[in-house]
Amino acid sequence: MRVAARALARTPVWTLVLILTIALGIASNASVDGFVRGLALQEPLTSESAEGIARIGRLLRVAAIAVFVIACANVASFLLARASARSHETAVRVAIGAGRKQLVRQVLADSVLISIAGATAGAILAFWLGQIVPSLLFDEDAEQMMFAADPRGVALIALACSAITLVCGLLPVMETRHDDPGAIIQRENSGPSRAAVRLGAGLVIVQMTACTLLVISAGLLLAGFRSALQTSTARRLSSPVVVSIDALQSSSKAHEKTGGLQYFESSATAAREVAGATSIAWAASVPGNRPITQSYEIETPHLPLRELSFLSTPFTTKTLETLIMPPLEGRLFGTFDAGPCSGVVITREAARQLHAEPIVGRSLEKPSGEWAEIVGVVAARDDSAARVYHYMPKAEPPYPAAKIERYRSAAAPAQSSVFDTNIVSPNYFQFMGMPALAGRLFDDTLDACRVAVVNRHAADLFFGGDAVGGAIIDRLGRRTRVIGVVGSTQLRAAQRVQPTVYFPVLQDFQPRMTMIMETGGVDRSTLERLHRRIALIPGGREERIIVKTLDEHLSRTALAPERIATVLVGASATIALVLGMLGLYGVMSDAARRRQREFALRIALGAGGSHVVGQVISEGMRLVIAGTMTGMVGSAVVAQWVASITPTNEPVSPWIWIAAPITLALAVMIASVLPARRALTSDPLIIMKDDR
User: Fold this and answer.
1) Tens digit of pLDDT for each residue in 138-180?
2) Which of 3, 329, 450, 610 has its CA 20 to 30 A from that of 596?
3) pLDDT of residue 44
4) How far apart are CA 361 and CA 297, in angstroms?
């Protein structure tokens, strides 16, 4: 081991390159495995996100395996080149009586030291990368993302790489034959066997094939990512910008709503003055954000009705003395229940006869033909009759007597479904290019009753294509009438449109909203000035202001999976190119060293240096062409898979397919020219004398 350590120390560059190669092979696999495990541990909100994570996980694992293959091939090439360089030393050892066991011990010592150093460096690098990879996620996940590094997985990868290193290190020993000492020295002076040369060439072809696959895949992902940023909204608008702000909260909901709406209006004025915004819309969930999903009970319009008889009873201050408080479900009356959207409270017996679950939020048609929402269920102290209480705040004694009346209710039970939920300004649909398909949209006034608009996907999926006149009931028992249907919009080709319900901001005020504005083009300094201007407006939280372009927002939210895949595959392709260049350099250096005598003869006979360099480059180019052609054939298959992650409706640029051959051609020129020129700097007379 001491002899091996001294031998490795005499070639520090070669040793460090080999250790770095092993470390990169281990770290790339371990870090990708930990990243994919971390994503899998997060429960996705939608089936689309689960499928996207699965596709990205498979792609990243394949990219990591490709880097690992290149690293292992690189290690084998370097060890074969080292064995070739030490062939004369090995021949002398055999000639003076060294046995195969002694040769194996010598080679194992070198390989063990390199394996230990490479595995240690790889493990350290893998856990260090674990702190960097989560930062590639978008903002809300980056804070929660846990890099699920698996020490056992790191150890297995390190053992696999170490085993490959040991096997490759033993290959030259397998070719060593014991016969006449003179014949051994003469044979070893002639260089490695043809099998070793073919093995080295095959390793280079494997490296070039994997490099081609990774470079083309990275190019396809980048093209798809850029195409995905060109959304229908971005193409229609001019340099869209998003500004997320928070209004100060108050103990009074009415004061909070009034102050918040004033703060939003002041922020919109600042956007027009500073950024030249020509059109502004507001939304609680910005396009591309993770959806805000909620479960609702659905009542479709035109349901069959059934008639029921209930005891119609006025609700007055005296009524409270006959009830058991608190209500069994829902609430009692408020002042707003006396308006056009009246509410009713029913007894437990009336709820039983309705056979509805949940009961709060359902509606009853009164004898007058008007519809009333059931806001609560109560229990009476001495009465088990099925009663319907009507709010009569202005009634004075003597109060109207209770009487039996006929009511009607929907016969079919409500269906439970999940919607993406958003709160928007009235002009949001026009701003986003979502046309009204049925009914009407919001206006600048507040409706007396709760209203909502659904997209076409929700109307088709849950309302049978006819949503206007239907209703949804949230988990608080609030009933909302559907007044319109809008068209759906997609941010990218791979996006699946989800059923969505939209509420007006005047009805369901939310302190945090995002302003989406159309501008004539802004730069970074304009965005910073806008941020400072909004921060000076009273009524908001300065630390919660976020100003960025729509492209920047999408790259951190809706397109984060594509961005992560593009960045990591691009990093894998870069690592693969570096490793491939190093491996090719090692093979070319060994080839140039073995052909030094041939070069010396050619130069002595009058050949120019450029002719000799051209021969070395042509030898490397043959290997690169073979690997590139194989890689391009495989890339045609991989392209179909990559298209499922970042699909694009635009034709793929031919430069993506040309980039890999050009890049590898430059790599082979660099890797071939340097060894050839170093060989040419030697004195031909000395080389001929040493090789006699």
Assistant:
1) 554 444 445 555 677 777 777 877 777 777 766 666 555 544 5
2) 3
3) 46
4) 9
Q: Is 385 in the same domain as 442?
A: no
Distance, CA of 442 to CA of 452 (rounded, Å): 8
Angle, helix 87-95 to helix 100-129, in steps of 10 degrees: 150
Domain closes at, from 509, 536, 558: 509
Same domain membership, residue 385 and residue 365: yes
CA 253, 257, 258: angle at the middle one, nearest 5? Answer: 120
Do 359 and 391 have their domain in common?
yes
C-alpha angle 190-196-201 in degrees, rounded to nearest 5: 115
Q: Which domain holds residue 497?
A: 285-299+412-509
Task: Report whether 370 contacts 408 (CB < 8 A).
Answer: no
pLDDT, greater one: 288 or 531: 531
Write the secondary structure of 386-431 as one string of H (helix), E (strand) and C (coil). Answer: CEEEEECCCCCCCCCCCEEEEEEEECCCCEEEEEEEEEECCCHHHH
Query: Across residues 545-550, what is the average pLDDT?
Result: 87
Nearest to 684 by CA among 607, 619, 610, 580: 607
Q: What is the per-residue pLDDT for 494?
A: 45
Please count the structural domains in the chain: 3
Cα-only R_g, the chain: 37
Model confidence at 359: pLDDT above 80: yes
Q: pTM, whole model, 2 decimals?
A: 0.62
